[in-house]
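FIELD: query
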Amino acid sequence: MLAVIKKELKSYLLSPIGYVFAGLFLLIFSIFFYVTLFASKSIKFEYLFYNGATVLTFITPVLTMRMFSEERKNGTEQLLLTSPRSITSIVLGKFFAAGIIMIFTEAFTLIYFGILKYFGNPSLLVALNTLFGFLLLSLAYISFGMFASSITENQIVASVLTIGVFLAMWFLPYMSNIFSIFSLIDKFEKYPEGLISIPEIVTFVSFSVLFILLTIIVLQRRKSIK
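FIELD: result
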């Protein structure tokens, strides 16, 4: 698995993908930072992430759309599936590599905390709790994006499918409370309030595990057919 992680990290860092993702992420957060600090006159770091959580809907596919679809398009999937490494280690390697890129990108937002610290007294504990919740949400989104990439060879299709499902999860609760269980963003909102809720952690982890397993099943089935 470590070999897969290293390979994937190199692909992110030696191509524009990782930098485009980090650049878009920090650009949008910088806009939110400006609005939060100057327009709203707020010095609460966690406010950045209320709107920032919605950003993941649109930029997560930058990390995930090529994970497996590119392998199929380039004809290298067969080599991947027949390599000595297990399907599970390949899937987990790709998942954790994307997670590492997310962690490093998220860490840069602490710059905003430092600036806010200069002007006021934001809570470090609440900030760390917010970052933790945001990471759980990010990993859940990555897991689904990876699954979407595993079922198509077209990166654009994988991206549109990912964004479409995320938007549905976001807006369906407004149509009926029955769908509130599917809204990961709603479950994240407790973290900027300084709360750590076990049910929310279980939901994020379960969601991630579910789509990691589904991705493994898809690849195992494709390997058995070939």
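FIELD: remark
Residues 2-225 form one domain.
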